[in-house]
Amino acid sequence: MRRKSKQTLPPKYLLFALSVLCVVMIIASFAMDLSNTPLNNAVGLVFTPMQKGINTVGDWTSEKIENLKNIGDVLSENEELKAEVVELNDELNSMQLEQSELENLRELLELDEKYPSYEKTAAYVISKDAGNWFSTFTIDKGTDDGIEVDMNVISGNGLVGIVTSVGKNYATVRSIIDDNSEVSAMVLSTEDLCIVHGNLQNMEDNQEIKLSGLKDQDNEVEVGAQIVTSNVSDKYLPGILVGYVSTLDMDSNNITKSGTVTPVVDFEHLQSVLVIMEKKTQVSDTEEQ
Amino acid sequence: MRRYVMAGAWVIIGFLLQSTIMQTISFANVSPNLLIIITASYGFMMGKKEGLIVGFFCGLIVDIFFGSVLGFYALLYMLIGYCNGLLHMLFYPDEIKLPMILITISDFVSGLTVYFFLFLFRGRFDFGYYFFNIIMPEVIYTILISIFLYLIILKINQKLETLDNKER
Q1: Taking CB atoms and an 8 Å limit, are B64 and A43 in contact across chains?
Q2: CB 3.0–4.6 Å: which of A193, A260, A261, B127 could bond A243 by disulfide?
Q3: Domain count for chain A
Q4: Partners of residue A51 in chain B, C-beta under 8 Å
Q5: Which CATH number goes with the domain that contains B155?
Q6: What is the ipTM of this complex?
């Protein structure tokens, strides 16, 4: 059955050659930035359309199944929501009054809006990390749509992550729950700085990410405080909501506090995201007057 | 020849399913590792050379899309494919236990290697946690899937082998 005569290159040498190639690539990727190479573009051109196709079919089926399962829940929820709408409408009216008052005051003070509205692009999540260790995913927009490395990615209510590599028609995003992710953040109310980093263990157990290095001498930060990206971060735009503090403890050094944050974004069911088309390095000049 | 084209097709199909459907059917955030099944199966079924080439390309695609270090998964999967190929002489098409054992060991090795290089080196020392919450569930899920997937890969490969031989 086995034909020895046809063998050209013994497997041993092939293994050696490819191992050397891998080691060279590993060293190269530590030495320089390989996040946007022709290889990415070539591979992206083949896989991205297919992943998109699979996802369209998959989403459609799972949506139909969910629909059937949820119809009972939806009906009762509808009742609750109707009651809530009335309540919220009321609230909205008073908020609108306050908003117009605020606008007037801002005009008076000639202040810009605190958070400029950035230009954004919507993109679909087309594939997720193949392993179980990290939380990266790819989206269906790439350099063709103006996406660049280090652009911030948000979803309706908060920060999702950052673009780490791009191809022509796709981009890889590292989410903030990824074990490698670190975000410079601050507590919105007190403007105390801290670091928020993803942690596989916390995420698996409680759907939380870690917070550390918070200096809070006056004990003002409480559980439930809002955490937003800080203005000293070199990659993340300031003021994007990250999540809410869920636990907070004093570190053994008695100076800083650490704890956990519950992210506002539902990473489990992420289907579409918004990419902010401005990078921190571009806007920083205008930002820091 | 047909078998080699099919091997290439399996790499592409494996990655596409792995990065889309497998992530949606994950249990407790853990999904099975199709690429390991494909790499180990080819190494075992067809030999060292086929195993290492299939493994190399499986790993390389993962590296390009999701890896933090280009070449890491390529090297890992290639070695796994090669090692499975070393046991090619024990391969009998009707025997299913040995392939299952090999796929299990392969997935274990890949899980442990990833933990060692990408987690332990960054100060995540709680090995027990990662072992019982990530590595073990992945292995179990992978075995369940591999019972079906291995047979499909094997049957298609046998079909193509007879076709290839007829032509000659």
Answers
A1: yes
A2: A261
A3: 1
A4: 16, 19-20
A5: 1.10.1760.20
A6: 0.83
